[in-house]
Amino acid sequence: MKLPLVQNKTVLITGCSTGIGASAARMLQERGWTVIPTARKEADLKRLRDEAFDPIEMDMADADSVARGAAQVLDRTGGQLGALVNNAGFGQSGALEDVKREHLLYQFEVNVFGLQDLTNRIVPVMRKQGYGRIVHISSVVGRISLPFLGCYSASKFALEALADAQRIELRDSGIGVILVEPGPIITEFRRTAAKRAEETLDLKESGKSQFYVEQIQKRLDQQKKPNLINRRPEDVALKIVRALESSRPKRRYAITIPAHLGAFMRRVAPDALVDFVLSRKVQSG
Prior knowledge:
The chain is an alpha/beta fold and 285 residues long.
């Protein structure tokens, strides 16, 4: 799809405490973009300030925080914004039967409702400009749902649906809606998900208690290194740069071999084969 180039190189990036968001902020700043990063915690905001950023506090699960943050951004930029990178998110793990309603709701508040709320606050600005890029950081699990990550997968499936619809709705506006779909990336995501599982799952009463304990400890102990399967957050940041700076960005950018394989399997493989492969994956841990 051909889009007008971004003239005002200002970008709001959510979830910049570590990982993909922090890497994208640094890379875009080096390329001459004015980057406005967000984070929830004061320690993360301070770290961003120490890196010469001027961050904004934003909690995607808090509607008032999203509204306040969006207003601060537009006030700072004089009512203009070239791009929005929706990166903030987390993964609620656990068998669906063990995920309480409140935790399912919180997953969607952060990964879906808050994200779309922020996007809708920025769209009128971009429409008035006649250009803009909206990049959603989705996941391979937005194309193929993983057992014990069903809650997280559902939030990414929802994000993919929203992005596909809004891309067409904005077709003649000069605004691009682009999905970036990473597979395994070496960030704190797995450890954060493991810690949240410890806090939210009933490790005593669940019939899967032993499995949870083993998997949580495994993820807390893992020290992954870049290879053909696991990539660095900088690899995702490079795709974000392409999505923002290309005159013909793709609608989707898959990153890592598992992400490409997952998308391919969902397109061509029968459900029985997908179930078999994922069942074997669960059994192997």
